[in-house]
Design brief:
It is a single chain. This protein has 534 residues and is an alpha/beta fold. It contains 13 helices and 21 strands. Strands 8-2-1-12-19 form a five-stranded parallel β-sheet, with helices on one face.
Amino acid sequence: MNPASRDFDVLIVGSGLAGLSAALHLAPNHRVAVLTKRAMSDGSSGWAQGGIAAVMGEDDSFASHVDDTLVAGAGLSDLAATRFVVEHAPESIAWLRQMGVPFSQEAGHLHLTREGGHSARRIVHVTDATGAAVQQTLIDRVHRTPNITVFERHTLVDLITSRKIGLPGSAQPGVAGRCLGLYALDEATDEVFTFRAPQTVLATGGAGKVYLYTTNPDTATGDGIAAAWRAGCRVTNMEFIQFHPTCLYHPNVKSFLISEAVRGEGGRLLLPVSAGGTRFMPQHDPRAELAPRDVVARAIDFEMKKHGVDCVYLDISHQPAAFVREHFPNIYARCLDLGIDITRQPIPVVPAAHYTCGGVHTDLSGRTDLEGLHAIGETAYTGLHGANRLASNSLVECMVFARAAAQDIRSAPLPAPPALPAWDESRVTDADEAVVISHNWDELRRFMWDYVGIVRTNKRLERAAHRIRLLQEEIQEFYRNFHVTRDLLELRNLVTVADLIVRSAQGRHESRGLHFSRDYPEMDPDSKPTTLVP
Ligand SMILES: Cc1cc2nc3c(=O)[nH]c(=O)nc-3n(C[C@H](O)[C@H](O)[C@H](O)COP(=O)(O)OP(=O)(O)OC[C@H]3O[C@@H](n4cnc5c(N)ncnc54)[C@H](O)[C@@H]3O)c2cc1C
């Protein structure tokens, strides 16, 4: 490909709901490139089951959705950002309908479900596979939009900034500079190419893969957060990682959620037989299995650590078999495939990292600290989620900020960037020790799980920080001396994100929302978001 054909008006990294929405909003007036590191459909968006929160019913109000979000956010949500998302949510739903998303209907109206933490029915959905339907609809649209060029299997290596290439004025203290484009690794040719554009949008999703157990897809390695941080952007609230209490624990299956509805319908959490086989939730909370997500996740974590066991069990077998099959057809079928008949046997489960509340610090237009760079979707911190995310509030955040960023980009001049240097590979060789990378991946994810998971202590955080320092040195050496691979790039980003999580957690001397420290079990009344400055 001729280098000039990698010149665009806007580069969008990521093909989830955030990235594709932004691309479609921009395409009428701009030449847009969407880069995505695997296939277009890979990412969290396609996996979302529940739906999208928006005030659509007559018995609901913006004030109520705002209040519910603020309650979930445990005092740390930003009021302006929360209002902004809530008030723009209905128009996002209207836009998705215009795009052709076949939302579930009842009697000629959108069917709305209700989820934990919402005080009204306000979840717009496509049966129990909302994300897949939305993602596919947008992919089809993008394929039919001539102004959008998609680069699949292209992994962002790094952003190119005016400061990095030494443009005059960009090295002044306090000036983050301007984003001019990026380097991306093309898997097909195994080459790193330069993409150039006056505007870049990061829409790379969350960072669940930094933990051993996660509900997230393999793409969730925090690449955008790490790249923005390296480019000089602030990052906020990285200590707030939401853990889902019950993910299937099975050697051959990654990331299969066991819905909270199983507990809602009477499922009981049990210790493994080797640890007594008893029910443990009543000792942790009077609401037992029906306690909120974070309470159940903490209780499971406590029992697993106390007994040194790999998982606990969720048992619904006391309900009639027909009831179980009818209420949980997918879970029943999936578990049966694996040899677990949930009408007769308990399901092995572990809590798993589910959502990254923090991210690249942005304003109400999705702008970051770097001119020419926006961040949207799970990779961004907008202030909406505070210390905990309300269910179904993330897809809507993707859409509202995709539109806001597109509007902001449309209103900005598009100065042609200068010529950019090609990727320099003159000093690197092929690594002959891929095992080091896979070993470091495993080590990082395990110690993050053990030391920086659901329950934290000063000592555990310090242990994690120490290991991160060692890994960073080793990975940096690899990065400098060897040809880059996707695994290496992801590991480099994961270790950066791990560092940001640990530093943020170390700075929070209280327990609030998703951050629980045994050394600081109380809430601090003067608590603020944690912002790290590069
Ligand atoms: C199992 C599950 C269920 C969920 N259910 C719901 C729900 O019901 N409602 C709700 O509101 N939220 C839900 N969420 C959360 C929600 O799905 C995500 O927050 C949201 O989809 C994030 O969208 P995104 O566009 O920011 O990122 P993603 O959809 O994750 O897309 C990120 C994109 O960036 C690409 N990418 C990443 N790094 C690079 C790189 N270096 N170079 C190039 N491309 C890159 C990826 O390949 C991918 O295309 C759920 C999440 C999970 C995992």
